[in-house]
Amino acid sequence: MAANPTRRMIKPKEGSREKMLKPKSIFAIKMDDPVGNLCTRFCVVAKAINSYLIHDILQLTVVKRFDAQVDLEIQQMKEYLMQGMLSSLQLPPYEIDIRAVVEKPEFLDFNQNNTYAHVEKLWPLIGPLTHDPLNQYRVAWLDLQDTETKAQALAIELYTLPFEYSFSFPAVNEIFEPATMVKCDQFIGGRPQVLKKDNTLVRLAVTPTIRISNNSTTPADVRLVGFAKVLLRLRGRRYTQLVSQMIYLVLPKRFYTSNSPTPATNGTQAVKKPEFHDYFVTHLPSSSLHPDPRAPVRSFQNLPRSASVPHVGKSSHPPASFQPLVDRETTVVRIPLRSAKHHFGASTSRGTRPENEDTYQAGVIDIPAFAKRPPASLTIKRPGAKGSPAPRENQGAETASGDPQVFYFGVFDGHGGTECSTFLQNTLHEYIQDSAAAFELQSSLGKNREGHYLKDAESSPGNLPILQDANPQIIGELEKHLVRDWRTLVGGYFKRFVPPHFSHIGKGPRGEPMLLSDPPEGVTIEEVLEYAFLRTDLEFVSAQAAKQSDELENVGHPVYQDNILYGRDRTPSLHIGGVRRFKGGSTASIALISTPTSTPFWHPASPSSLLVSHVGDTRILLCSTVTGEAIPLTSDHHPSSPIEANRLRRFATTFVTDSFGEERMSGLANTRAFGDVQSKRIGVSAEPELRRIEMAPAEYSFLVLMSDGISGTLNDQEVVDIIKEARTPEQGSRDVVSFATEVTKEGDNATCLVVRLGGWERRLEGGLGSLGTKESREWRRQEATDPRRSRR
C-alpha cells in the first residue's frame, strides 16, 4: 500500500508554467488505466465500486460499526463538510484513530467479512454481464473479490490521508447534469432511454479534488462530481479490464491553472465559487463623537484658556467645522440586510393554514453588473477638491470584480408542501450565479479588475435588451443540452419547446434544438435568468422522477429512518425535495437591482436597473414617486390569462372550472410553476416572465414583493398606500401582512417584502398620498372586525 502518493502527485514542478484552461460546459476523457495510475486509482477504485456498495464514501466508511468512537468522530467531520461550515480541515487525529483501528487483530476478519458481503451484493449486477453468469468457474467472482479487496484497502488509506493539502471537497449544491455521463458513452449513442432497463449504473459519491497529470496535454485539476452516473460494461474476463476500459472522468466547468504557481495553491488555482451574502457592504463615516487621531493637529486648537482672545484679523486656517469632508475617514462595514429595517422589510404569516408554505430570500448575489453604463461625460467631482475623489460616504463597496453590488430579492409560494419553495429559497440564487459563470458573462459596465472603465467601452445604448460579453460557443451548447434534456425527460409540451430568450439555438427540421450558424456575440441577462430558471426546475423534476412514490413501501419501517446515523439519506442537500417523490411545486418572483456606480440604489441621486423574473401568481409592484400609483410588474399565470391560454392551446382540454368559478389546469391554479412533476407534460413549466425597468433617480419610492395571500385579498393600490403610511420598509411589510390577514376570508399564507428606493422620503407627496384608499380600507377593517360577520 502506498504511503502517501498524493503528496508527490500535487507537488508543483520547479519552473513550471501552466497555461489557461478554457472553460467548457462538460469535459470527458477516457483513462487508459485508472487502476494503475496513481493519480486516479484512489478515486476510481474506491469510489466506483466501494461507494456504490456502501452508499456514499462520506456517508459510510469501511471501518463503520467496528469502533463506535471513530464512527462518531467521522460523522461529525462529515456534517461539517456537508454543511459547508469549513472549506478545509486538518485531520491528523482521524489518521491516528483509523490507523489504530486497522492495526487491531480482529479488524482483519471484520474487513474480510465486509468484502465478501459487498461482493455478494455487487455480483447480481456484474455477474450477468460476464461469460460466467451462473458463477460455475468462479473466475469472475474471484476477480471481483480481488478488486473489492483493493477498494477496501484504498478506502481505508483515503481516510488516513490529511485532507488539508491532499483533497478538497466540492460544494454540495454544485450544478451538474446527470445525463452528461450517458451522452459521453458512444455505445448508446447519447440516448439515455437505452439505459432504462439496464441496472449496471454505478453512482460516484462526493469526491475530492485531486491533481491529475494526463488531462490531454495540459495538467489541470479534475473533479469527479457527485452523483455522476458511469456505465460499467464487461468486455473481457477480468473486471480490472472493465474498469480500465469504461471509466470516464468528468471535469468541472470553471477550473483553470494559474501562470505563476504559488506554494499555497500548489501550482493550481480554482476559480472561486460565486457566493451569496445576506448582507451588503457599505462605507460609513468614522464617529463624529471622537476626533480622528490620524488628522493633523493644528496649533490654534490647543491654546491655553488664558490666551483665548476674540478673533479680529484674518486667519489662514479655516475653522475646524469647515474642513473639507473629503479628508474624513470612512469605514467599510457589513450590514445584515434583514436587520436594515430602514432599507428592507419582510414579514410573513401562515394565516389559518396549518403550515406556512411561503418562503423568501434577500441578499447580494455574485454576478456581473447588468446596469446601463452612464455616459462618460457624467463625472461628479467635489467642488474645491482639485483632483480629489468624491467622498465615499453613502456609497456601497464594490465586489472583487470591481462591479457594484447586485441585490437579489425573491418570494416563493409553495403548494402541496414546503419542499419546493424551500429548495428555491436556498438554491435558486446559486443556479443564477453558476449560470452566469458558465456563460462567462461579463459586466455591462466595461470595467477592468481595478474598477476603472475601459477606454474602448462605450455607454450602454438606449435600446433594450443590453448585450453583455460572453462565450457564445459555450452558451449554445448549454442551451441545446438543456432543451434536449427537457425533451428526453418530460416530452409532451417540451418536444417542440425552445425558450423565447434563447438566442443561440433554433429549431431543426423535426423540432429538435440546433445551434445557429451566426449567433450573437453577447448575451442578455434575461437569457441567463431564463436558463437558470429552467435548469433549476429540471434539477428538481429530475430528482423527483428518480424517487419512489409508492408510500406502501414505508410500511413497517421507522418514520425517521433516514435521520439515523449513517442513513443513506442523511444529507438533505443530496435529496432534493425530500426522501420521497414530491408532487407539489412553487411559484417564484425575484427582483435583481444593479447600479452603474457604487452608490446604492436607495440613494435619491442614484439611477439603477431593475430586472424582474416571475413564475406563477406571486406579485411584484413599484410605487411611482410622482403619481403615487402602484405599477404592477408581473401578471398572474392562470388559465384565464389570454397569454397562457394561447401558449397552452394544444392542451386546452385540460382546462376546467371549479365550483368557485376559477379556471384550473389539471387541477392547478397556476400554469407556470416549479415542480408539479405530474403536470409538466401538459405545459406547466418554469419559463419566466421577464421585465426590465430602467429607474431614474428617485423615480420610484419602493418595491413590493408579495405572495397571493396578499394580492388575492388586497388590490395593488391598497398595498402601496398601506406602506406609504409606515415609517420604515420593515414596518410597512408588517402592516401589509397584518391588514391582509385581518380582512381575508381565505386565511392563506401571506408574505410581503418591501425594498426602499430613491424616492422613499417623498412617498406621500405623489397623487393623493395614502388617502385614495383610506376610506375603503377602514370600511374593510370595520367589516372584518364586525362580530356579526361570522354568522353570515
Structure description:
The chain has 792 residues and is α+β, with helices and mostly antiparallel strands. The protein has 3 domains: 5-270, no CATH class; 335-340 and 357-375 and 391-451 and 465-546 and 583-637 and 672-787, PPM-type phosphatase domain (Phosphatase 2c, domain 1); 638-670, no CATH class. Helices cover 27% and strands 16% of the residues. The strands form 10 sheets. Strands 12, 13, 18, 19, 24 and 25 form a 6-stranded antiparallel beta sheet that branches. The chain has a 5-stranded antiparallel beta sheet with strand order 11-27-26-20-21. A hairpin with a 7-residue loop joins strand 3 (209-212) and strand 4. Helix 11 packs parallel to helix 12. The protein is globular. The termini are far apart. The model is unreliable at 1-62, 80-93, 161-271, 288-303, 315-327, 378-390 and 559-574 (pLDDT under 50).
In a few lines, what is going on in this structure?
With 792 residues, the protein is α+β, with helices and mostly antiparallel strands. Helix 5 crosses helix 6 (139-160), helix 10 crosses helix 12 and helix 15 (716-724) packs across helix 16 (729-743). The chain starts with a helix and ends in a 7-residue tail after the last helix.
